[in-house]
Amino acid sequence: MTTATISNVQPRADQPVPDGMRLLRGTECWWVIHGSKHARLPLEAVIQTEAGDRVLDDVLNALRERDFFIKPAVTAYAVTVLTATACNLGCAYCFQNLELPAAGSFAPPRIRNEVLTPERVRNVADFIARQMAAASLDQTSLLLFGGEPLLNPEGSLELLRALKPMNLVDAEMVTNGVLLHRRLAGELSRAGLHRVQITFDGAESVHDTIRVTRNGRGTYAKILRNVAQAAEETDLSWHFRVNISHHNLDGLEKLIDDLGDVVPGERASLHLALIDDSGLGYENEVGYAPEYAQRFKQLHSQAIAYGMHVPLSKPMTDCPYCSTVGGAEGAVVNADGQLYSCWENAGREGWDIGDVVNGYRPTPDIQDKWVACDFEIKSHGTQEATRLFFEEIDAAVLDDTYAHARRRSTAPGSSPTG
Questions:
Q1: pLDDT class of 416 with cuts at 50, 70, 90
Q2: How many domains does the chain fold into?
Q3: Cut 0.85: pTM above it
């Protein structure tokens, strides 16, 4: 995480706050965030006014001179493709379930089973090429999704190979990791995969009661073993999502230790996310409250000490798939070739808005079906509580990351910094 530092400030604050700018109070500084950029400001760079905390004019001007507030141009067409809609696990909270599993069952009913075939791969590639041309984009990025995408490993490999000549600059797979053995990881990496996202549901004893196979078997040890072997075999990056609920809030330190032991920290990132109720009635008592913010900060700090990257929160409006009606910058494609506005409703009956052969239907016909991320999710707190929660944990992440980088730069044997 690159951090800009601004100093030598003057006491004026007359300019309006740039759109989208966030100002967070750190322990020894202020942090200013805009899009994917952030800068570290001295305490005297911000003054209090009746309207709230304000950044001094000279500081804002210095940031503008560094193009801090200029949003990078979109250069890549972003596409999510489900290569298989079936899943080998039976997580009860999954938004692709049609209802909760019956008592004593680990196999909830799901969206219709579809598989990305070779013909559909060609159709998807042709569709992406047309979308890139229409948007005057010369790059593409891919998210391989499911279901479980590795229930169709050949479809995943074929799609990577088809998009690689189309200037594929980023390719990630969301997988549960159960089927990601060493050889397959190597094949995916050579085909163009850059990063793997894997979800855990707590420490082993809890994970193995939640993230289970459809016959009820635990998966923790197998996933960790596969990750360790794939990390040895390839230079893939790893993004670990940890689902948080009242079921698994305790004991997460052991999970982070396990992750830190199997993947070098510089190749890993960690995201703590509350399990959502997507309308099925899966309850989560954890919310965006101060006591949980403290817990998040402790776990983030542990991950950062391993060298892991902890991403900052960002608004849903930044999503390349659902933030603009009509798929100008990105698309979500089901395994059958149908188009959807969001990966959360992909494969659901009646939510399709076109297909890769014919493209999107006219905007008036799809307006009511164009939904954004978390469109059915039950809130974890008020809007104000949510804002304060993420301000607190994001400031702590920036503080810890900066302190960790400083310690590494001054450690014996480290290279001098400019």
A1: very low
A2: 2
A3: yes
